[in-house]
TrEMBL record:
This is DHHA2 domain-containing protein. One of its GO terms (cellular component) is cytoplasm. Pfam families: DHH (PF01368), DHHA2 (PF02833). GO terms for molecular function: exopolyphosphatase activity; metal ion binding. It comes from Graphocephala atropunctata. Belongs to the PPase class C family. Prune subfamily. The keyword rRNA processing does not apply.
Length: 372
């Protein structure tokens, strides 16, 4: 596919990184720490829009919120960008830009995409946040009263970005940009599945408009979803330790590793327990959660495990909170597990995702774990 405006923009942004100190303002569009497809594509596409709207004294830099060495673990991201001939070398990763230095110089204008809660290590950046776009339930402890905030409960952050592009600069929605946004929406909503119940009317509306913009690429909705799901589930080159980092969230200092397979399948790996133990040591935690999700034959199945590394009471508190939660009810059923330290559950409410599980775990973590 021929080079379009997105590829040109990314190449220019990478060049600007070499003399970033010469700009009065550096507008950093920062995705979340998982850097899944929704986060990655929404940050790239929204940066393209900001680049159109910015003043000459500013530069726009989209940033994947992971170190460069973690990028190969994001198999669906690398697959999709490579497929569209978007040079990964022109993408800036978190370890390649000094946000602290820019913040201290008062030149940083930070835009948060696909998240609105800063982890403790990034809390010092809060004063530099000028805009937030997210599709998660609002955490009231982060009101963002001084920022331009778009918080709406839809299936994909790319839906919100697509809506902004169509309303403010529709000419930027090239076939490449359209298929990137469309694919991310499909992957986040299980191909707009009504059974899974993640997609909203706005997701459907934006997916339809985006599909119309990339009709020249000759790919159907089901095929695109299958290709991306296959890429996300392709863990053949990943070790068990890498798999735990592939889709990681940390809430109240409790790591919640998301897997593209069921946890029960992961635990069949010979090195699974050792990988989780090392994972807990690396994150200095006595308890962690592993969350599995698998899409097959048109439906999603989910399971989760709470691992007691060195704090049985904390693990039991998390289990109790997950089992007793009513809005939504996860409908957890205990499953036999022969791997010591793991409490494994099948989640029969498939409409509840990790986005709903994370606040439950955060509330437990804030209550039972010391803050120091």
């Amino acid at each position: 596919m021929e080079t379009d405006e997105l590829s040109k923009f990314l190449s220019q942004a990478r060049t600007c990184m070499k003399n970033i100190q010469s700009f009065k303002y550096v507008m950093v569009v920062l995705g979340n720490e998982t850097c899944d497809l929704d986060s990655a594509i929404s940050s790239l596409a929204y940066s393209l829009l900001l680049n159109r709207l910015k003043t000459t004294e500013s530069v726009v830099i989209p940033v994947f919120n992971i170190p460069r060495e973690h990028l190969p673990m994001k198999t669906e991201v690398t697959y999709f960008l490579n497929k569209l001939n978007i040079d990964l070398n022109n993408v800036t990763c978190r370890n390649e830009i000094n946000l602290e230095e820019l913040n201290n110089k008062d030149s940083l204008k930070l835009i948060l995409l696909d998240h609105h809660v800063l982890p403790p290590a990034d809390a010092y950046l809060a004063a530099s946040v000028v805009s937030v776009i997210d599709h998660r339930p609002h955490d009231p402890s982060w009101p963002w009263t001084s920022a331009d905030v778009t918080l709406r409960s839809v299936g994909s952050c790319c839906t919100l970005v697509a809506e902004k592009l169509f309303s403010q600069a529709p000419d930027l929605v090239s076939p490449n940009v359209a298929i990137l946004l469309w694919g991310a929406i499909l992957l986040d909503t299980a191909c707009l599945s009504s059974e899974v119940g993640i997609a909203t009317s706005l997701d459907h509306q934006m997916a339809t408009k985006l599909q119309g913009c990339c009709s020249s690429l000759s790919i159907g909705q089901d095929q695109l979803f299958r290709d991306l799901k296959r890429a996300k589930s392709d863990i053949s080159s990943l070790t068990s330790s890498q798999l735990l980092l592939k889709d990681l969230k940390v809430t109240a200092r409790i790591p919640v590793a998301g897997l593209p397979i069921k946890v029960q399948e992961f635990l069949k790996r010979e090195d699974a327990k050792r990988a989780v133990q090392d994972f807990c040591e690396a994150y200095k935690t006595k308890v962690c959660v592993v969350y599995g999700s698998e899409f097959a034959q048109g439906t999603v199945t989910r399971d989760l495990a709470v691992y007691n590394h060195a704090d049985k009471n904390a693990a039991l508190e998390i289990v109790a909170a997950l089992k007793s939660n009513k809005d939504p009810s996860l409908d957890l059923q205990p499953q036999p597990c022969s791997v010591e330290g793991f409490m494994l559950f099948e989640q029969f409410n498939i409409k509840a995702t990790r986005k709903q599980v994370l606040p439950i775990i955060r509330q437990v973590g804030e209550k039972i774990l010391p803050t120091s």
